[in-house]
Task: structure prediction
Amino acid sequence: MADEKKEKEMLEDVTSGEYKYGFVTDIETDQAPKGLSEDIIRLISHKKNEPEWLLEFRLKAYRHWLTMEEPNWALLHHPPINYQDIIYYSAPKKKKELNSLDEVDPELLDTFNKLGISLEEQKHLAGVAVDAVVDSVSVKTTFKDTLAKHDIIFCSFSEAVRDYPDLVKKYFATVVPYTDNYFAALNAAVFTDGSFCYIPKGVRCPIELSTYFRINAANTGQFERTLLVADEGSYVSYLEGCTAPQRDENQLHAAVVELIAMKDAEIKYSTVQNWYPGDKNGKGGIYNFVTKRGICKGDRAKISWTQVETGSAITWKYPSCILKGDYSVGEFYSVAVTNNYQQADTGTKMIHLGKNTKSTIISKGISAGKSNNSYRGLVRVSKKADNARNFSQCDSLLLGDKCGAHTFPYIKTANPNAIVEHEATTSKISEDQLFYCQQRGIDMEKAIGLIVNGYAKQVLKKLPMEFAVEAQKLLAITLEGSVG
Amino acid sequence: MLLNIKNLHVSIQGKEIIKGLNLSVNKGEIHAIMGPNGTGKSTLAAAITGREGYEITKGEIIYKGQVINDWSPEKRANEGVFMSFQYPIEIPGVSMTNFMRTALNAQREYKKLPPISAGEFLKKMESKKKLVEIHSKLTNRSVNEGFSGGEKKKNEIFQMAMLEPELAILDETDSGLDIDALKVVAKGVNQLKSKENAFIVITHYQRLLDYIVPDFVHVMYNGKIVKSGGKGLALELESQGYEWIKEQFDD
Amino acid sequence: MNKIKKTRFPLEEIMLKHIAQNDKKWSEEDLPEMNVLRKQATEYLLEKGFPNTKMEKWRSTDMQPVYEEPLTIYDEAIPYTKKVNEIFQCDVHGFNTKVISLLNGTYYSKENEKLTVSKEGVIIGSLAYAKKEYPAFFKQYYGKIAGEPSDGLKAANTALARDGAFVFIPDNVEVKDALQLIKIMNQPNLAVNIRNLIILGKNAKLTFLHCDDSINHHAGFINTINEVFVGENSSFELYKLQNLNDETALLNQTYIHQERNSNVKAMVISLNGGLIRNEISNDLKGQGAFSNINGLYLMDNQQHIDNQIYVKHSVPDCESNQLFKGVLDQESKAVFNGYIWVAPDAQKTNAFQRNNNILLSDNAFVETQPQLEIYADDVKCSHGATVGQLDDEALFYMRQRGISFSDARMLLMYAFADEVISQISMEGLRLNIEDMVKRRLRGELSICDRCVLHCSNPEQPVIFDIDMSKI
Result:
């Protein structure tokens, strides 16, 4: 049937949306030689003028990493990563101290403009403070004054180590220790920079905090480290967005994000991830192995993860919550879109330790092309977590007949008062819905975009306004084809 | 006196809902308890029937001369306390017949009577079904499962007819009922009413009281009975709303 | 080979020793094809050893205590005694069954009844005899349905199993009476490997009851592999009843191959057992195949139940359903791992799976992992899992009607279990199982109770025999 044929074409087109943000910014970089050794780690530490304790930490992590094996339990296939073929340090050469946007490298500003996320625009229109990270070193932070008024600390990780060593020492690597997993150990050994944020007691952060990551220099692994502490009764919404230029060689990214919410504090952490997924034939693309974890340390603390994952050749990511305080709440809302040869193995862990803790998991996987998209999650209720509640809903949508959608939830319950519910469905895009749209004059491509956006809405609406728009754009780009 | 409640204080999770309530009910009487939402009407019903989580912090519930504060819900039920639930729960997998027979036999065992025979039981079911105009077959259906709102409420009255309580509490039985179902429910209640039993009718609206005529009307507000009167009080509330009560008794 | 495992568990040692001692004898007895399989399995066992908790599929079931138990492999079958006896009889009210039995892993009957052939051509009997009499079946099916060793215990079974039940139902034959296989162990500290092979031709029908019961309180380990081939348009119903003592470990691997338009209904009811692991691997190989795999487990003490269900949709237009429900009390532990795999191009697949658990005690533990791996788009697949407790609202509702707390709890537990039990299509069997489950929930069912499979009193001396009128 003609319609069927058209649909097939359409689905093929859906998978062939070219990567719009694939361009290279030409900035002079200061690079370390390829490879990983104790000397390289010392070099990184030296370059960053780090204190002795941090170097010791890095070395311990490195030595531990050497004893570990790369995990292989995820449903992911990739050629072995040569860790000696990666450059572990590169920073844009600083021309001079920057006092205003005008002093920022014009090429960099141009890059942001192409991405449609110019600092200027953000600053004026959205009221977002942006800590833009290009190749591991923070370049520019805005809105510092506003934040300073509330005694909020928001700076690059290196600055935090220099200016707030006690705070950093107190919280750093307490949620994700270097022993946690292979990639966390690697990150702990070689992380170059990242963001640090501290919200003091009782402060409601007046603006959305945001960091844009970009991977820039070729063959540069990106090892970000984010540490966010919300002290008692505080609130913060943190946005993280990623776009990466097109590359032929695979690039490794192993970030670590740690969130700490004290008593009555709330952290909302949102991510839009759109790194280069590789070309139509599965060549290139980012390998994204990220460890994200938050702990609700005090009673009634809340951590909410929202993620929209559209990029990367490989995504290995499980933003998790340790619900330690009584009545604490963990949330995970995720949309993961894969196409061509992309592979995503993503989900969450909800660890219920405190009484009356509550967690919600909403995951929407959309697979197209020859991609594979897996939800993998763990809900664990410890013996002491009386009245713990979890609800998980993990749905998969298949576009085309060459892709895969998988669901691997693990549920472990050792408490008789806990209620844990998991539901999952897998289905293809509804022909009835498509036809209904078409009958109303909407073309196939738009219809698919519409339906997929509707499908993901439950998650998208959890994003802060500014991000929701960008996320929808990204979904549209992913689904964009050449029809019409 | 069938029921005598003295200075009752009830808390849920440490929050006091009923704050010193007094009420006495004699056999042969119908009492209506009215009042705005959230004043503790349903909490009172729960406290009388012994629901877990409703902590009596002070005061006494005296039923047939005995303080029943610490009695289990089933002991109260077997002593003749029945509640028609506001939201009757669905119990999948437990058939109506099995459920009712278990309940009836529990009561008989409590009264040291032999269990009812299957034949007797079915006969009783049929006659009581007629009373509340339940026409559908209950035998193969699970308790309240797939019942419409009206059917659920009729089913409550049917169970009341089966168990023949001495004190029946109707908790918002009229909510979600159309006028026909309401009439059926009221008719059931009126037929069951006798000199030997008493009813507490909890309702937000006076509508139900057109069909079940109360001897006493109490207005509950903020955890207490703030006003009592005859059936005229209900009409007064109907025409004037609860605002004047709120104004008069808000601190 | 430098890969060979260095330290071994006692049970591995015993098994390997037993293989070495008997290899020559067995090679002469068996078909060349079976010798190849045995050799391959032995090598696998030598190299990999028994499965351990570091393996993903065995993560939550630790068999090590069993490996370390002083178990023996029984070499000689207990001679057939003619004493027809009261202790062991089988009469499931309401329907007739034909009973066959395995005593300590060996097919138990008179010498001249080791294989019976009905006038329709139905063959029922001992696997050890069948492989000599009907080698063609073994060449075609034996080891083909179960596939290559994927863990050491599967390998051990292939390397060591000498007997079991063999059933063949020819084309167009519908067997009216259910066939009941009873596995009994009456020797202490025994490790047995049992292999059953069931073949249904086209348009055939069979109901099979597979009972694992203890008749004493001896420790033991039963390692069973069932291979089932269900031909085109055929219908196979399998009921596994497990009522074992707390000292017995049972591993039951069932491989079911389904041809076009075949229909399989399998149910596993685990009422007692120290350690039970059921693996059911269901391969839907022909279009239009339908499978329904259900389970109920009621565990207490320190019992451990592990259900591993793998359903493979290899071709389009098939449907599978799984429903597993469990009630866990005291310090018991339940593991559920349900896997639905949908092949690329297995379009129009419908696959559903659900696991519900009720935890009754502070020390009970549930681990459930329902998994979907799907490579086709025109499918309807879903799974769900819950862990919770009895509904407080429902409990109060019942108590308000005068029903005692314990009765209300019973009713709710029974209602929970009923969703599985009500799917038993044979009424006689259903009523029996209903009764067993009720008594189990009330704590009145002992492993030595009279049940679908009748057991002896532990204090009584065990004399095993069968009601001859049923054979």
The longest strand of chain B covers residues 15-25.
